[in-house]
Amino acid sequence: MKQIATALVKAQKEFGPALKTSTNPHFRSKYADLAACVEAVIDALNNNGIYLMQMTHETPDGAMAETVFLHESGEMLSAGKLFFPASKHDAQGYASSLSYVRRYSLMAACGIAPEDDDGNAASKPAPKPVPKVEPKPEPKVEAKLEPKPVQTNEGVANFAMNMFIEFLPSAKTEAELNAFWKENKEAVAKIKAHDESMYVDLLAKFKARKDEINGN
């Protein structure tokens, strides 16, 4: 895994932000759609000899995707499988579920998070040029994949919370809500471990959606 590890570290340094250019009508908030997430990483991956592949797996109740990085050396790295239930068991419902799961799988695999498209990036001062120096010979060491900067307790908890908030309006039955909670129990545990108040807020949002579905 040495070559793909080295290439991924180099590619990650070139990743851009996943800009929030789409609008969620239920919460009147912006989010980064699948196209924005792909655009943020695809050039950096390809420039470093990495092919991005998102495999789908058969599941009767929604969509399951697996983000895989394939290096030109033949080495391959999988980020694991992620499941999203379908809001409706029709073409539109499954397509929406697939878009959700591909987007979140890609962001988690690449260690990127959504960023507001508010011009902040354009207002940042340009980096100062660094004088070119001749590289010194370094001892040969085994390349290691550095930890992704987004994988802090706060970053993981906020990422998981946003995932749940985007899903809630699409759930049409209490069974779908329960299935989604069960499939993502590890994300729930990370929210609870990071911030108890955030966990309580999540429980309240799920209960409110259940009451809304059941007409209470």
Outline the structure in words.
The protein is of the alpha+beta class. It folds into two domains: 1-117, Enolase-like, domain 1 (2-Layer Sandwich), CATH 3.30.390; 151-216, no CATH class. The chain is built from eight helices and seven strands; from the N terminus they run H-E-E-E-H-E-E-E-H-E-H-H-H-H-H. It has helices spanning 2-12, 34-47, 91-110, 120-123, 153-167, 174-183, 185-194, 196-213; strands at residues 18-20, 22-24, 29-31, 50-57, 62-71, 76-85, 114-116. The strands form three sheets. It has a three-stranded antiparallel β-sheet. A hairpin with a 4-residue loop joins strand 5 and strand 6 (76-85). Helix 1 (2-12) crosses helix 2 (34-47), helix 2 crosses helix 3 and helix 7 crosses helix 8 (196-213).
List the helices and strands and how they pair.
Layout: H1 2-12, E1 18-20, E2 22-24, E3 29-31, H2 34-47, E4 50-57, E5 62-71, E6 76-85, H3 91-110, E7 114-116, H4 120-123, H5 153-167, H6 174-183, H7 185-194, H8 196-213
Parallel strand pairs: 1-7
Antiparallel strand pairs: 2-3, 4-5, 5-6
Helix pairs in contact: 1-2, 2-3, 5-7, 7-8
Number of helices: 8
Number of strands: 7
Overall body shape: elongated
Q: How many domain regions?
A: 2
Overall pLDDT confidence: 78
CATH topology name of the largest domain: Enolase-like, domain 1
Distance separating the two termini: 54 Å
Major sheet, described briefly?
3 strands, antiparallel
Our Rg estimate from Cα atoms comes to 20 Å
What is the string of helix and strand elements?
Answer: HEEEHEEEHEHHHHH
Residue share in β-strands: 15-25%
- Spatial strand order of the main sheet: 4-5-6
Low-confidence stretches: 24-28, 117-124, 145-151
CATH structural class of the largest domain: Alpha Beta
Give the helix proportion (percent range): 40-55%
Structural class: alpha+beta
User: Based on the structure given, which CATH architecture of the largest domain is correct?
Assistant: 2-Layer Sandwich
